[in-house]
Amino acid sequence: MAAKKKTNQDCIFCQIVAGKIPASVRFEDEEMLAFDDINPHAPIHVLVIPKKHIESLTHITKQEEALMGRLIYRCRELARELNIADSGYRVTINVGRWGGQIVPHLHLHLLGGAPLTERLGMYSEAKMTIGARE
Ligand code: AMP
Ligand code: ZN
């Protein structure tokens, strides 16, 4: 695999990391950033991202295995801080076109604060007519 660029100038999340686009930051350290989703799907909707540009879960390598664990652990910590740990919450990663990923920079959605729908794997028959790689 070609070496990953650390940042991608065209990437909206890289621009948030660089401070060029404002965000409501919930957590930051040297390798990750957590901020509120601009179009929340639940009362609490935080995105947790690696600072380096990784396109999607498909694009991580063995090298990022531990980083993935720390991103998930951060969701756990944020859930506690935001008082949704006891009521329950969801952590989701959309991957690629059919996975519903719109922003091509790996991110974990932390959703909670209300009972979430159980319809986790709903799919759109209409969208299936569009090629996954289109
Ligand atoms: P996904 O569909 O998994 O790629 O999710 C991308 C998410 O990024 C969506 O929930 C968007 O609302 C969110 N988003 C896009 N632009 C911004 C932004 N500038 N600040 C915060 N969230 C954003
Ligand atoms: Zn990026």
Automatic annotation (TrEMBL):
<dbReference type="InterPro" id="IPR001310">
    <property type="entry name" value="Histidine_triad_HIT"/>
</dbReference>
<feature type="short sequence motif" description="Histidine triad motif">
    <location>
        <begin position="105"/>
        <end position="109"/>
    </location>
</feature>
<dbReference type="InterPro" id="IPR019808">
    <property type="entry name" value="Histidine_triad_CS"/>
</dbReference>
<feature type="domain" description="HIT">
    <location>
        <begin position="12"/>
        <end position="122"/>
    </location>
</feature>
<feature type="active site" description="Tele-AMP-histidine intermediate">
    <location>
        <position position="107"/>
    </location>
</feature>
<dbReference type="InterPro" id="IPR036265">
    <property type="entry name" value="HIT-like_sf"/>
</dbReference>
<dbReference type="Pfam" id="PF01230">
    <property type="entry name" value="HIT"/>
</dbReference>
<protein>
    <recommendedName>
        <fullName>HIT domain-containing protein</fullName>
    </recommendedName>
</protein>
<dbReference type="InterPro" id="IPR011146">
    <property type="entry name" value="HIT-like"/>
</dbReference>
<dbReference type="GO" id="GO:0003824">
    <property type="term" value="F:catalytic activity"/>
</dbReference>
